[in-house]
Amino acid sequence: MSSGHLYDTIGTTYTLTRRTDPRIARQIWAALGEARTVLNVGAGTGSYEPPALEVTAVEPSAVMRAQRPAGAAPCVEGSAEDLPFEDRSFDAAMAFATIDHWGDPIAGLREMRRVARRVVVFTCDARAADLFWLNRDYLPEFAGLWADRPSLSELAGAIGARIEPVLVPWDCADGFYHAFWRRPEAYLDAQVRGGMSIWARVGPEAERRVVDTLRDDLASGRWADRNRDLSGLDAAELGLRLLIA
Ligand SMILES: C[S@@+](CC[C@H](N)C(=O)[O-])C[C@H]1O[C@@H](n2cnc3c(N)ncnc32)[C@H](O)[C@@H]1O
Question: Which of 25, 92, 132, 166 could be a cystine partner for 35, CB 3.0 to 4.6 Å?
Answer without folding.
Answer: 92
